[in-house]
Amino acid sequence: MEVCGEADNAYDAIRQVAALRPDICIVDISLNGADGLELTKDLKGRHPSLPVLVLSVFDECIYAERALRAGASGYLMKSESAAKLIDAIRRVLRGDIYLSDRSASKILSGLVGSKYREDQYSIDQLTDRELQVFRCIGKGMNTSEIADSLLISVKTVEAHREHIKRKLNLKRSSELLRFAIQRSLVQ
User: Fold this and answer.
1) Which secondary structure element, helix H or strand E, spans residue 74, and what is its range?
2) What is the pLDDT of residues 137-170, one digit of tens each?
3) Cβ proximity of 38 and 14 under 8 Å
4) N or C: at which end does the chain have fewer Cβ atoms within 10 angstroms?
5) Cβ neighbour number for residue 9 with a 10 Å cutoff
6) Which strands form 74-77's sheet, in the order they lie side by side?
7) Is the pLDDT of residue 186 over 70?
8) 101 in helix, strand or coil?
């Protein structure tokens, strides 16, 4: 195996994939600008046969299914061993889907109608964009900073904040901030 390119933002990644034509892309959720889920969607739109493996510190129970829906062929936590990373790369290159047993069980339970959710107000309910805003809130970013970072309007950020509060059954912005910070500390 050989690393043929590296990028810290979606724009550079897309350019490098077009120029270098890698056999696989390993994508992190955290990027400068657009997040790894958006990059994965974009890559799959431009290069449908390119396998994408998401490798991230973010909780697989929240992000693995989202990554698969975005077009990834696997999700692996950065805390896993190098041997698991190599196994995941090889499986994805063979055309298989790679997930931890925990993630696979959660996704399959959802398919057969099992009540896997830990509670009624889980962040699993958030859309991908709401989850991006939630993560930014957890980083301590204010509304203007979030808007600039995600290239959306302040009003759109405010609307997402209200949707997030409603979905998580939070009444005040201070509750949302506290919850987002707590979640960011465990990820």
Assistant:
1) strand 74-77
2) 988 899 999 998 888 899 999 999 999 999 898 9
3) no
4) N
5) 12
6) 25-27, 52-56, 74-77
7) no
8) helix
